[in-house]
């Protein structure tokens, strides 16, 4: 018996979940089809009844209502006929006849549409009442023509009006009967609808019961095996790749179990690959920073050192020869570093890793500065040979940052950071190597706080605007000043512009300084309007400012707010700053010129500007750099060059000013060469406060 049952299950393929689910869903589908078709059939029946109701009974009801209305109307029309003068009777006859015909049409339409016996009997009575009215109507009309209105009115009241009343009463009886029939049909339709709803509810309940039984069977044959599969999958997800699932009784579960077993094996293999990719550099197969930190548990120990190396000129190699060549160089460098590290015979060999780009790190144990220096020299020795890259031969060199712990253990991240600080110090000083010192750390922290201090300096007015006079060489009269920024820090004291201005340019805060200087210069010009109305102030503009398309609008707003003549404010732009993006810069300079500002090219001669661009610049002044002015009286070749610059400037319609004049001989030489103006210590150092006011007071009257 058991074998026969198993054979039947095999023949019907009931060990397959799909077959079981198909049979279950087929049964449910059949039940729900019946549930669906039953109301559809009933709806069709009700629709047919509704169509019959709409086409016959509603139409009959409308006919009866119209008949009642027509009966009332004919009585009023006949009364109107009996009261109008003789000459107006013809149109009234026509109106009465039309209404009589309308009554006849409605009776004929009702006779054709009725099927109820009682209604047909009522219609027969209605026709009899219609005939009686018609006879009395004819008598009344003849009497009207023969005997006059009074006799006709008497007949109308005695015979026609009662006949019309009877006809109207019969119409209302007919209407009541028709309304009762409609209500009866509606009640029957409602009963049919309720019976259909009850049958649908019973069938739906039966379907739900069958669905519950099938759900229970499905739970036994599907959900429980799937739960076992889920448990196995979770064990795999938790890293137990040795877990194996015992095949189930159903074919699908058995196949999924086999697939899970295969997946566990494949994931185990791939995880090893992913872990290797996560902890090793794919190009050099060296450990990376993550693995270095994981291996040493993020902690340092005494007598531990780190050599951080960065491949010099890697960016140039990538841009010039391509990234493939750059990768070849990195791989070759890594190979050479491996050879050096492998030669160490110490108890614990140095540990080599690649960090990022062209950066490598060697973690040294039980070592000293002399040992690390020796390792450094051996690395330099193996880097002496150029790297062969196809047809190219690339010289390689490394920049080193070295850091060490002696007695106090440091976390490895701290040691790496110290080595990075030393590496950046070596790069800043253009050295091949640098050891980490506390001074480097202090300098780094100082620069970090400098940015915050600079914002505070602008906000708290710690900055100062010093002014250096500009004089005409012909008559020695002052016509303006160059504004120079100075910073008097409340705790650090005087901070040189050479320190914080380049820092502000690198961090993007130079625009903040420029706007502070511009507003200071404009407010100063506003204060000079009464006593020194012809004096100008020139403010230096950085390359960063020239990239800001809103810069001209900001200056225009400042000038408008303080009501200062734009011609008194000058902007000095470096030659190199113009040449970074000459086309865009020229457009911005023209906008500044349109405001009314005078523009000057600062440090002229130190850049590489093209004369084709120079003649397009909307500037009014060239400022010769101090490098051409120093000792110019004793340098004939420099004099020839400066004379050519002055002639070129005059040829372009520009005035020429020389900066950095410190002796009378330099001033006289430049005057003889045709230079227009001068600026430098010989005329005056930069002035501030009382010294500036004294200098202004001593100016000759205009």
Automatic annotation (TrEMBL):
PROSITE patterns cross-referenced by the UniProt entry: EAL (PS50883), GGDEF (PS50887), HAMP (PS50885)
Domain HAMP as annotated: residue spans: 220-272
Transmembrane segments: 21-40
Pfam families linked to this entry: 4HB_MCP_1, EAL, GGDEF, HAMP
Annotated ranges, domain EAL: 447-700
CDD domains xref list: EAL, GGDEF, HAMP, MCP2201-like_sensor
Residue stretches making up the GGDEF domain: 302-439
InterPro entries registered for this protein in UniProt: Cyclic-di-GMP_PDE-like, EAL_dom, EAL_sf, GGDEF_dom, HAMP_dom, HlyB_4HB_MCP, Nucleotide_cyclase, Rev_trsase/Diguanyl_cyclase
Keywords carried by this UniProt record: Membrane, Transmembrane, Transmembrane helix
SUPFAM superfamilies: EAL domain-like, HAMP domain-like, Nucleotide cyclase
Listed NCBIfam families: GGDEF (TIGR00254)
Name under which the protein is recorded: EAL domain-containing protein
């Amino acid at each position: 018996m058991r074998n026969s049952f198993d054979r039947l299950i095999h023949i019907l393929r009931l060990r397959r979940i799909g077959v079981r689910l198909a049979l279950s869903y087929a049964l449910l589908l059949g039940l729900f089809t019946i549930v669906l078709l039953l109301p559809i059939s009933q709806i069709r029946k009700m629709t047919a009844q509704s169509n019959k109701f709409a086409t016959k009974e509603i139409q009959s009801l409308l006919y009866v209502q119209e008949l009642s209305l027509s009966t009332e109307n004919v009585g009023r029309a006949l009364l109107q006929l009996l009261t109008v003068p003789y000459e107006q009777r013809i149109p009234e006859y026509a109106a009465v006849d039309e209404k009589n015909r309308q009554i006849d049409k409605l009776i004929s339409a009702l006779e054709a549409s009725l099927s109820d016996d009682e209604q047909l009997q009522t219609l027969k009575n209605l026709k009899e009442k219609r005939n009686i009215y018609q006879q009395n109507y004819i008598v009344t009309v003849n009497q009207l023509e023969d005997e006059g209105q009074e006799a006709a009115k008497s007949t109308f009241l005695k015979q026609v009006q009662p006949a019309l009343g009877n006809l109207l009463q019969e119409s209302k009886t007919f209407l009541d009967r028709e309304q009762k029939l409609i209500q009866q049909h509606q009640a029957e339709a409602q009963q049919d609808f309720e019976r259909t709803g009850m049958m649908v509810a019973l069938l739906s309940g039966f379907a739900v019961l069958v669905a519950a039984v099938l759900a229970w069977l499905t739970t036994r044959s599907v959900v429980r095996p799937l739960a076992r599969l889920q448990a196995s999958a979770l064990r795999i997800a938790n890293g137990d790749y040795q877990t194996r699932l015992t095949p189930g009784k159903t074919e699908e579960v058995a196949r999924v179990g086999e697939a899970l077993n295969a997946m566990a094996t494949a994931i185990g293999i791939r995880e090893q690959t992913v872990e290797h990719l996560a902890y090793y550099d794919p190009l050099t197969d060296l450990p990376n920073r993550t693995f270095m930190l994981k291996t040493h548990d993020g902690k340092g120990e005494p007598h531990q050192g780190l050599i951080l190396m960065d491949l010099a000129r890697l960016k140039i190699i990538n841009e010039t020869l391509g990234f493939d060549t750059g990768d070849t160089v990195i791989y070759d460098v890594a190979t050479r570093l491996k050879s050096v590290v492998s030669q160490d015979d110490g108890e614990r060999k140095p540990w080599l890793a690649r960090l990022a780009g062209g950066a490598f790190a060697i973690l040294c144990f039980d070592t000293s500065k002399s040992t690390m220096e020796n390792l450094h020299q051996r690395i330099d020795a193996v880097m002496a040979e150029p790297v062969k890259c196809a047809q190219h031969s690339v010289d390689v060199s490394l920049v080193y940052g070295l850091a060490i712990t002696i007695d106090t253990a440091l976390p490895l991240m701290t040691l790496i950071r110290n080595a990075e600080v030393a590496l950046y110090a070596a790069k800043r000083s253009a050295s091949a190597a640098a050891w980490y010192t506390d001074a480097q750390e202090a300098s780094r922290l100082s620069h970090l706080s400098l940015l915050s201090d600079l914002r505070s300096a602008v906000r708290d007015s710690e900055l100062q605007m010093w002014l250096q006079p500009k004089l005409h060489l012909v008559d020695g009269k002052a016509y303006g000043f160059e504004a120079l920024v100075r910073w008097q820090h409340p705790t650090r004291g005087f901070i040189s512009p050479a320190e914080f201005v380049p820092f502000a340019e690198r961090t993007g805060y130079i625009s903040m300084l420029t706007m502070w200087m511009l507003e200071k210069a404009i407010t100063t010009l506003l204060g000079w309007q009464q006593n020194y109305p012809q004096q100008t102030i020139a403010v230096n503009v950085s390359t960063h400012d020239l990239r800001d398309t809103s810069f001209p609008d900001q200056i225009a707003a400042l000038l408008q707010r303080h009501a200062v003549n734009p011609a008194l404010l000058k902007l000095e732009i470096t030659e190199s700053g113009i040449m970074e993006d000459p086309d865009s810069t020229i457009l911005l300079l023209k906008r500044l010129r349109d405001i009314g500002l005078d523009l000057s090219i600062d440090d002229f001669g130190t850049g590489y500007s093209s004369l084709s661009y120079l003649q397009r610049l909307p500037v009014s002044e060239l400022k010769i750099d101090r490098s051409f002015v120093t000792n110019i009286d004793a340098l004939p070749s420099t004099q020839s060059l400066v004379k050519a610059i002055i002639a070129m400037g005059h040829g372009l319609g520009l005035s020429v000013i020389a900066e950095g004049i410190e002796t009378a001989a330099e001033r006289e030489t430049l005057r003889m060469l045709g230079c227009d103006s001068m600026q430098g210590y010989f005329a005056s150092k930069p002035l501030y406060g009382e010294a500036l006011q004294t200098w202004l007071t001593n100016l000759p009257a205009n």
